[in-house]
Amino acid sequence: MRNIRMIVEYDGTKYRGWQRQTATDMTIQGKLEHVISEMVGKKTEIVGSGRTDAGAHAYGQVANFHTKSTLSIKEMYQYINQYLPQDIVVKELKEAGPRFHSRYNVKGKKYVYRIWNESTASVFHRKHSYHVPQALNLELMQEAAAKLVGTYDFLPFSSVKKSEKTTVRTIESITIEKKDAFVEITIVGDGFLYNMVRIITGTLIEIGSKKKKPTYIDEIFSVGKRQNAGETVPSQGLFLIEVYYN
Amino acid sequence: MRNIRMIVEYDGTKYRGWQRQTATDMTIQGKLEHVISEMVGKKTEIVGSGRTDAGAHAYGQVANFHTKSTLSIKEMYQYINQYLPQDIVVKELKEAGPRFHSRYNVKGKKYVYRIWNESTASVFHRKHSYHVPQALNLELMQEAAAKLVGTYDFLPFSSVKKSEKTTVRTIESITIEKKDAFVEITIVGDGFLYNMVRIITGTLIEIGSKKKKPTYIDEIFSVGKRQNAGETVPSQGLFLIEVYYN
């Protein structure tokens, strides 16, 4: 069996997220499996690096599938991109070693949350960013973000209910940059809990707009409950940028 | 009567262009007039700086309207942006002198044509750019563009049929820049004939992809016929950036 590894870019606006749930719902995984199954002439499942939320986007989702197809890499690349809808593109496709697994082998991920920080909304970026009209103070946000870098129990920054599994994660870096009218929050970590990037962003926005102080982060960690953190900002500003493997 | 001047940004994807044609068609002018008429309680016509094509976009279309309304500038700004569809935004609104006329007073315009110049299409920019997969040589395009700067009869670079009016126009500058994966062609001139920016762009793409040489421009001018120039590239890459007045 060949093991084929892909990098997938998608505009998630119309989709219920990455993960297929029923046979016919609008998911990225479902669309890819449909096209790949037609291509190889056999029902084929793909494995992604992990879920992405309904409405969230990706520049670099990673997925793989096993096949006995004798099509060349170039033929597969062309077929898939020809038959995928225009809001999903396979940017890279190659042979992987037999043991490569898109989910089990993940070492970390990079997400960006993109804020449109102008008084007027942008007609061009409204589906790929979140509009925050009040001016954000980046220094305050950076001071707060520094408190999130490290290994902590991120349960209060997630929508995880009580769970048997650990909610300890490591954030390796958070950078907050102004790029034209955008404020971009880039987070690299070894793993992310459900809604973690969106709740961290909502919390940092409260600090950047001076509703809360940077020490708000310390309070959230010490109380340890979800309801103390900021709101879950909309998925339309969230992008999975890269998945890291060894 | 007050004379109100606006700067309008729009994503033209869903529209049949700026100019209202029937009472109910999807045009930017029609949408604005509908909201403004409701606001002032009286059927109100607006004047734009000129048409934009079906599917083309604007960062800085200028329009004005006359009204006896006593609403403040701030109230108008808020009302209009609240009731406009999300793909149209009034970025600026102010009182103009009584004689200001958005179309008659135009001194020049700046357009950008945006090309996505990567082998794979972009899922995020596909509605606001034109995908050219083959690599473009910017030096050749710049050499050709320099031949278009000046005062010439641009009839062969337009879709104008025989006309009583002059087809002589002045292009003040053309710059061609690489910005990440985009190639952006920026054209400033005193006026533009129908399809002129899109045909100039189509011609420059033929030169940048080495199907033609920069001297192709000289040939088109000397023969003087539309069918000798490049194709009319799609409107989705075209942006009206700014309108100049004295």
Automatic annotation (TrEMBL), chains A, B:
CDD domains membership: PseudoU_synth_EcTruA
Keyword annotations: Isomerase, tRNA processing
Domain Pseudouridine synthase I TruA alpha/beta: 6-105, 144-246
Active-site residues, as the UniProt record annotates them: 53 (nucleophile)
GO molecular function, one term: tRNA pseudouridine(38-40) synthase activity
InterPro entries attached to this UniProt entry: PsdUridine_synth_cat_dom_sf (IPR020103), PsdUridine_synth_TruA (IPR001406), PsdUridine_synth_TruA_a/b_dom (IPR020097), PsdUridine_synth_TruA_C (IPR020095), TruA/RsuA/RluB/E/F_N (IPR020094)
Residues engaged in binding substrate: 111
EC number, as in UniProt: 5.4.99.12
Presence of the UniProt keyword Signal in the record: no
Domain of life: Bacteria
GO biological process, one term: tRNA pseudouridine synthesis
UniProt similarity note: Belongs to the tRNA pseudouridine synthase TruA family.
Protein's name according to its UniProt entry: tRNA pseudouridine synthase A
Species this protein is from: Alkaliphilus metalliredigens (strain QYMF)
